[in-house]
TrEMBL record:
Gene Ontology BP annotations: attachment of GPI anchor to protein; GPI anchor biosynthetic process; proteolysis
Active site: 150, 192 (nucleophile)
Functional pathway: Glycolipid biosynthesis; glycosylphosphatidylinositol-anchor biosynthesis
Organism: Komagataella pastoris (Yeast)
Segments of this protein annotated with the region Disordered: 317-339
Name the UniProt record assigns to this protein: BA75_03040T0
């Protein structure tokens, strides 16, 4: 019986000590992106290129089209002034046609309105609104929201016809928080005086960046002489340049990205708002927003437990007798913290068994199984 208590004690210690690092891990289980170019007309080519570049990046890093809402006037690729019909480029070398592969535009032309954007965020639609055009997020969703267009102090123009104000977005985010429509939001905006647009936010778990301060313009990066227009904005360009280097399994963090923002590159003061956001940016993976999580559902948990307990790391079957003679618990308190059971895991019904921590997780699972087996044999005696 003593052994049983000791084992249980060890297990409790491990469980307790595992919570600290988990606070820094995102608890989301799905990713969404909302990408908006709010301008129109040929001379705003670069806004379309900005948004299509992000579209390409989030897709490359694993967010499926069904979880990307793309909103743009879409009047550039087929514009009569386009020397390269059907194409949109973000670089004067024209190496990459952003319009080339499957582009699913969810809101185009005159559907790009303030009203539609707010309805999208708050999910207030009539019953006939197609699912594919809805932001079907929940309390486990991390959402990347990117806006580009012409703006000024506390507003962003939509289609030269109307404006959205920083208060409108702040209130929409609050409604989203109340309706449990997100876990975390990463908001990015590239426009003049961009940082004023996130200054009114007041809802929790929002991280925001913008391209320029109050009274500052944002600048385009370079032009294509044949197209005769600027093809990308500076702030967007440097974000993309960094994101180009990361892959789905990247360990790069938000802090790594933000460190690259310099006035020399961007020609304006990029802003970062963190006061609504709890996690340490050195611990926030870019893939928490620019990727899609792999998950194992709790429905399979018992099978997984059994499988893990009955197999070695290489997948070969394990003898139960060797398990009972082992003392795996003594090895559990290594400095690597288990990712097992995030803070809200009971609510989320997910358990994350991926990545390097799985071997530790596996050991704990074995330990739990072992304790129950021991307890069982003890009662038999
Ligand atoms: C990320 O970190 C883990 C553990 O530290 C490491 O095994 C893995 O190779 C890293 N991935 C990349 C792409 O560097
Ligand atoms: C964030 O994490 C880094 C790296 O682990 C650490 O150096 C830094 O002190 C932390 N910052 C805060 C505010 O906890
Ligand atoms: C931990 O496990 C390793 C083998 O994986 C073993 O060599 C070592 O002795 C164990 N440590 C303790 C404290 O049991």
């Amino acid at each position: 019986m003593k052994i049983l208590y000791i084992l249980l004690g060890i297990l409790c210690c491990v469980a307790a000590s595992s919570t600290t690092d988990d606070d820094q891990k995102s608890t989301h289980t799905n990713n969404w992106a909302v990408l908006v170019s709010s301008s129109r007309f040929w001379f705003n080519y670069r806004h379309m290129a900005n948004v299509l570049s992000f579209y390409r990046t989030v897709k490359r890093l694993g967010i499926p089209d069904s979880q990307i809402i793309l909103m743009m006037s879409d009047d550039v690729a087929c514009n009569p002034r386009n020397a390269f019909p059907g194409s949109v480029f973000n670089n004067k070398d024209r190496a990459l046609d952003l319009y080339g592969d499957n582009i699913e535009v969810d809101y185009r032309g005159y559907e790009v309105t303030v009203e539609n954007f707010i309805r999208l965020l708050t999910d207030r639609w009539g019953p006939d609104h197609p699912r594919s055009k809805r932001l079907l997020t929940d309390e486990n969703s991390n959402i990347f929201i990117y806006l580009t267009g012409h703006g000024g102090e506390d507003f962003l123009k939509f289609q030269d016809a109307e404006e959205i104000s920083s208060y409108d977005i702040a209130d929409a985010f609050q409604q989203m928080a109340e309706k449990k429509r997100y876990n975390e939001i990463f908001f990015m905006i590239d426009t003049c005086q961009a940082n004023t647009m996130y200054s009114k936010f007041y809802s929790p778990n929002i991280l925001a960046v913008g391209s320029s301060r109050l009274d500052e313009s944002s600048y385009s990066h370079h032009s294509d002489t044949e197209l005769g227009v600027a093809v990308i904005d500076r702030f967007t360009y440097y974000n993309l340049e960094f994101l180009e280097q990361i892959e789905k399994d990247s360990n790069k963090t938000m802090a790594d990205l933000f460190e690259t923002y310099t006035f020399e590159d961007i020609h304006s003061h990029a802003g970062i708002r963190t006061d609504l956001y709890n996690r340490n940016l050195s611990k926030v993976l870019l893939t928490d927003f620019f990727g899609n999580i792999q998950k194992v559902e709790v429905g399979n948990l018992e099978e997984d437990l059994l499988y893990l307990a009955m197999t070695n790391e290489d997948g070969s079957p394990k003898q139960l007798s060797t398990q009972l003679s082992q003392q795996p618990q003594t090895n559990i308190s290594s400095e690597r913290k288990p990712r097992l059971l995030n803070k809200d895991s009971s609510k989320e019904n997910y358990i994350n068994l991926e990545s390097t921590e799985s071997s530790l997780g596996r050991r704990i699972l074995i330990a739990i199984l072992l304790v129950s087996t021991l307890g069982f044999t003890y009662t038999l005696k």
